[in-house]
């Protein structure tokens, strides 16, 4: 085990201007609509509170304690300093810096909560363009460390979204593309080939497409916070199996797709469920074909094209990494959101990764993200050497990593043959 | 370990008449509408085929090989004989005997695939009444062994459904109530108190409410079989968390709710996810209250009120039984569906349960179902002694059940404190 400091990249951070400051980034033609949008902000904030998305007491303490650092959510000059505290050398930047009060929402709802059927396509695109323009500037301030994600409301206006993706890419954004996780009632689902121009431009420009957690069918869930918390992950991940099952990765072999901040705990079971169905196990023998276009197992498309921005993984999720694929999991600190690990990332890493093999930790904490988003690891190495925690800092020098042997050797038990890891591991104990 | 034969109850079987034979069970007022419905059957069958729900080759072989036994799907005289072959002494009977060609659909779509928004409430209720009437007769033919599930299209006509539940219960049906798993676009979700009369009558009459796998948003999924197979479980299980999070079990403390034939592989992660959110772990501290009505952890409501008719469990699912709760899992052979284990249940049980502790197997294979649906175990014991497999028949006398110790002692790791079972078990190995 080498004790070199980790080169840590957060595959999930957030940046956004206080909403009213987006005005100069909007085309003058939208200023009037923007005034109307600003006038609704109180109502939108009230809806958030009604659903229970805002705990007043927590919000008060949070903003009081972090008032200054939180400006790093939009202040280019402060941003790297906050990441340095966390030992993070690079970041992939999604919208909505303020996930507590929603005060940094991009114009016209262009952000994490986008639902295709619920926005006016032209306005959403204008709002996304404003955010993308601003974000390009933020990234140019520290180009080696920042990858900005292009916000692209593709539902309702594919050509316009494709044009904006090209424009934003030309403007320097290299963090990939974020599409709405929900198309919404009555809109074309992502299996529709009407979206092919989106997949095509992402493939052509080498931009991974993403969904990011946030949207859910609010009307249907009412004000029941528990329903929102339970379902939001599913609605965010849903496009993943739409792309896998409907031939998108066959038509666009260079396309990559990631699901960010929706956890990873569901992915192992999803791959198991899709693979055993595809392999015509007993329960699916009665069914017909999954389609000419399905030339490989779902998990093979997943390995070749998909990744999970798991952000701040829990032990339960890390324990499933051999089923999901260690190389398919990207860590993130969710800066500057309170549900993330900033500004205590070093402690969190020591807790979650202490007994994880170092080579696996290096991949999940940064190296896979570097490949996915094109960070220059050689260029970032000196900074990593200065601010990155070492395996020893995470307690990994004292760890017995053999506890993972059964799970690692079994991998995807439905493909490797042996029984579930619990039993395989126990059998080895017995030997 | 006593070697007494197992008392096996299938918590998931199916019965239904060839559709046209439901005519005498319909009120004459619906005969004209029924003729129109019959005329659409070819179109409905074509839609099934287009989605890929029917593999012609498989269907041909299936019907040829089992032509005679499949009549037990509606022929009362043949039914017990088929269950005897499987070693099954009792059954909980859902609709739709033919899951291959759909030839036994109850009138007006009253069956497994019901989606509230897609049926005409009065007709769906009439179809359900016809099926329930016929099913009562089937159950009266062998009352000790049969529990018929009341089909109740509650979406769109709560009072009518409540009346039908009372009528069918008075008519002798004791297998609980099956509601549509999907209310559908624009209809009231199950958190709406408009459904309280349904929960009230189920509580009053001691009838567990169920969803059964089958429905999915077909329009949205198009003809992509993979999407249907991947999502149908989620849509079937969805009402479970709607009831848990929105206070239904607080308002109706005697209500029981089950999810049948939707697998069990998702339940452990669901409970983990809901509990950690409820316990305000780091990621949910920023959120407000889950509601005055949430007096207990989601998993406590689950243990007290819910169960999973897991039907034919895979090893992966059985390995998660200590998180889900051994006492919350009911086995079923899905007779006479080809994705079930009939007519080879004895072999299947030997494969899946060989290393499961006998007392746990007895609970999952019959005793929990006996309690849930009020079977007379003493009365069924002589039959069980005659046809039931013994633990020895399943190879359990040779099994080392200690392989499960770590998982059993850990239970729900998020409540019991220790780390995930993989690590806990390994740590014990190291000691």
UniProtKB/TrEMBL annotation, chains A, B:
Q: Which GO terms describe its cellular component?
A: cytoplasm
Domain spans labelled Amidohydrolase-related: 113-375
Q: Name one Pfam family in it.
A: Amidohydro_2
Q: Which InterPro entries match?
A: ACMSD, Amidohydro-rel, Metal_Hydrolase
Q: Which UniProt keywords apply?
A: Hydrolase, Lyase
Q: Which GO terms describe its biological process?
A: secondary metabolic process
Q: Name the Gene Ontology molecular function terms of this record.
A: carboxy-lyase activity; hydrolase activity
Q: Please, which domain of life does this record's source organism belong to?
A: Bacteria
The protein depicted here goes by the name Amidohydrolase
State the species of origin.
Answer: Actinomadura rudentiformis
Q: Which taxonomic lineage does the organism of this UniProt entry have?
A: Bacteria, Bacillati, Actinomycetota, Actinomycetes, Streptosporangiales
